[in-house]
Design brief:
With 150 residues, this protein is α+β, with helices and mostly antiparallel strands. The chain is built from 5 helices and 7 strands, in the order βαααβββαβαββ. It has a single domain, classed as Aminopeptidase. A 7-stranded mixed beta sheet has the order 1-2-3-4-5-7-6, with helices on both faces. The chain is globular and about 35 Å long.
Length: 150
């Protein structure tokens, strides 16, 4: 798996993946996003110093999108979604496993990675758990918080 920073040419592809019904179902914001709204978010995201949008590729095929955000230099929050046609092939775990090194290169002081997952998103819960993320708690709105200490 190769990782690279998202580029302007990725904008439409990311929106298509994000607006896929299953991706929307597992997102905190499940409404369909307009091209205009997405483009504003995407362009702003590319300029933010505390955010990285990363494209995971395998054999020159885009497999998934990773978003890393940090509030302090020791903790990042991770969000991942896959190209719909790539689901069920084990890529989610491969991406999560490989992104740790990328994250530490970006933020050398990194000590932990946090993930927020809907309780109904069983595939993500399995992936995070298998990779050593520890469940911290479940909120009243059924959001599971996972943490990986590096």
């Amino acid at each position: 798996m190769n990782y690279r920073d998202a580029e302007p040419l990725d904008c439409d592809w990311i929106l298509t993946c994000r607006n896929d019904p299953e991706t929307r179902n597992q997102s905190f914001n499940s409404k369909e996003i307009s091209l205009e709204e997405h483009t504003l978010w995407f362009n702003r995201s590319l300029t933010m110093t505390n955010r990285k949008i990363i494209i995971a590729e395998y054999e020159f095929t885009r497999i998934g999108v990773v978003r890393l955000d940090y509030e302090d230099v020791e903790t990042i929050e991770i969000s991942v979604f896959l190209e719909p046609e790539q689901r069920g092939k084990g890529y989610g775990q491969i991406i999560l496993k490989g992104i740790n090194e990328y994250a530490v290169e970006w933020l050398p002081s990194l000590k932990q990675i946090v993930a927020l997952v809907k309780q109904t998103n069983l595939a993500s819960i399995r992936a995070f758990t298998k990779l050593g993320y520890i469940q911290q708690h479940v909120s009243v709105d059924n959001i599971v918080t996972f943490k990986l200490t590096l």
